[in-house]
Design a protein that fits this description.
The structure holds two protein chains of two kinds. Chain A is mostly beta strands. Helix content of chain A is about 0%, strand content about 55%. Chain A has no helices and eleven strands. In chain A, strands 2, 4, 5, 9, 10 and 11 form a six-stranded mixed sheet that branches. By secondary structure, chain B is an all-beta fold. Helix content of chain B is about 0%, strand content about 50%. Chain B has no helices and eleven strands. In chain B, the strands form two sheets. In chain B, strands 2, 4, 5, 6, 9, 10 and 11 form a seven-stranded mixed sheet that branches. In chain B, a hairpin with a 6-residue loop joins strand 7 and strand 8 (about 75-80). The chains are: A mainly beta, B mainly beta. The interface between A and B is medium-sized, with 23 and 25 residues.
Chain lengths: ~110, ~120
């Protein structure tokens, strides 16, 4: 069974701090990796995609991928209360479907 | 900005009834998906659809489920005889994946909350 693992949290950080969210996956053939943000009662919203080892930056967000360790992370700089949400890690192994983790709940307090 | 839309936002039905959930994918996208999320659980893949046929489906997508693209814009999920355990949020997603570019970014609609009583 292919799995995507995330710490369910909550991860609590003060406003302005860096939030670090982590994800591991079990299938070595996984090719594409995604971070989605999901507010309570809402749908997943794509934040970042990453396909190659290393870092990818987009505004306050940085995704990091290490395929050898089967590890992907998301850093959120200058965290804001509006960033409080559940962050879903999703993996695509070259077929059509995304496999999601259970998500990490992030709380940013003023 | 183009977005995926879904109707209805909330559907209440009785066990054994048929429901049809509707989606309008992003207009230039070619790949369409249905996912579901039971309350408090992870998002689960149901089915993918490309070139007017199912390209992949999960174990959840049994004979009670079907998908259709009845025209150039709509994409539907039908559940023939609903069960209590079908109660969930159902998300439609679409992608303009060009597999040669390894781009599988999927964009989700707002979802339909299905409640089976």
């Amino acid at each position: 069974q292919k799995e995507v693992e995330q710490n369910s949290g909550p991860l609590s950080v003060p406003e302005g701090a860096i939030a670090s969210l982590n994800c591991t996956y079990s299938d070595r053939v996984s090719q594409s990796f995604f971070w989605y943000r999901q507010y309570s009662g809402k749908s997943p919203e794509l934040i970042m995609s990453i396909y190659s080892n290393g870092d990818k930056e987009d505004g306050r967000f940085t995704a990091q991928l290490n395929k050898a360790s089967q590890y992907v992370s998301l850093l959120i700089r200058d965290s804001q209360p509006s960033d409080s949400a559940t962050y879903l890690c999703a993996v695509n192994e070259g077929t059509d479907k995304l496999i999601f983790g259970t998500g990490t709940r992030l709380q940013v307090f003023p | 900005e183009p977005e995926v839309t879904q109707t209805p936002s909330h559907q209440v039905t009785q066990m054994g009834q048929e429901v049809i959930l509707r989606c309008v994918p992003i207009s230039n996208h070619l790949y369409f998906y249905w996912y579901r999320q039971i309350l408090g659980q992870k998002v689960e893949f149901l089915v993918s659809f490309y070139n007017n046929e199912i390209s992949e489906k999960s174990e959840i997508f049994d004979d009670q489920f079907s998908v259709e693209r009845p025209d150039g814009s709509n994409f539907t999920l039908k559940i023939r005889s609903t069960k209590l355990e079908d109660s969930a949020m159902y998300f439609c997603a679409s992608s303009n994946a060009d597999h040669g570019d390894q781009s599988y970014e999927q964009y989700f609609g707002p979802g339909t909350r299905l409640t089976v009583t």
